[in-house]
Amino acid sequence: MLETSSRDLAVFRKFYACLVTATYGVTDPRIISAFATVPREDFLGPGPWKISIEGTYIETPSANPALLYQDIVVALIAERGVNNGEPSLHARSLGAVGVSEGEHVLQIGVGGGYYTAILAELVGATGHVTAIEIDDGLAERAKHSLRHRRTVEVLCRSGAEGPLPRSDVIYVSAGATEPLRVWLEALAPKGRLIFPLTPGHGYGGMLLVTRGRRRRSFAARLIGRVGFIPMIGGQDERAVAGLAAVFKSGGLEAVRSLHLDTPPNGTCWYSGRDWWLSTEEG
Question: What are 39-75's pLDDT values in tens digits?
Fold first, then answer.
């Protein structure tokens, strides 16, 4: 396959940005611009690349970066199932969480740093992204790839343990069986948490939680069906079966609020250990 010029790559990237945002009706021009601006190939290592199709990998026919500008999942560590996730899913999540210029974003599960760079575009020169990655090899890759972005700090540590910085947005890219307290406690007033609520390796939903005035109640909604690699420190094996069952039964669109340390009532959609999701506005 012939090499692609930088001018042609910019055209591919612009179309790709329109494609992955339009898939779920994301119209925010800042998100479209971020996907059109950040070179995906800078965060995936040298090609050819392995593309994940429902857990099975196929290899691109060459190392031409034009091949990456599709709505595809690309392996970072294929033998462990660690990938650079589906762009349209992340576009949808970014559209839902609404990152504003000047905000402080905490990203948990950085991988190679591609979506960190997208977040950095969204917070702009006056914002900041604290990016946490537990895998030391991936953290080093991300640090190198993001080294020119002064608003980004990459830390190699667990995102399931405190202390965590006060954040306007917490953006999690690994599956957990519950909204961890350490995340909720780190939210600034009107802060938003978005994370994959998933039972182990099974499918769950992307949960958006918004902090209001109440300490034990949050606005919440599930944004589509998702599957993510399980988070180290974020999976309670006792919750997997029940969580899998409720997602299998459907009704994700009914969730409206998250409650802590209170007994569930008749509006309960799912009840965890000391938290529950309700179909009633919080």
Answer: 999 999 999 999 999 889 999 999 999 999 999 999 9
Query: ∠ at Cα 248 (243, 252), nearest 5°?
Result: 80
pTM recorded for the entire structure: 0.96
Taking alpha carbons only, the member of 68, 33, 66 closest to residue 50 is 68
> b or e along 37-46 (b: 16 or more beta carbons within 10 Å of the residue's beta carbon)?
ebbbbebbee
Minimal CA–CA distance to 211: which of 97, 109, 76, 68?
Answer: 97
For the record, the structure tokens of 280 come out as 């009633």
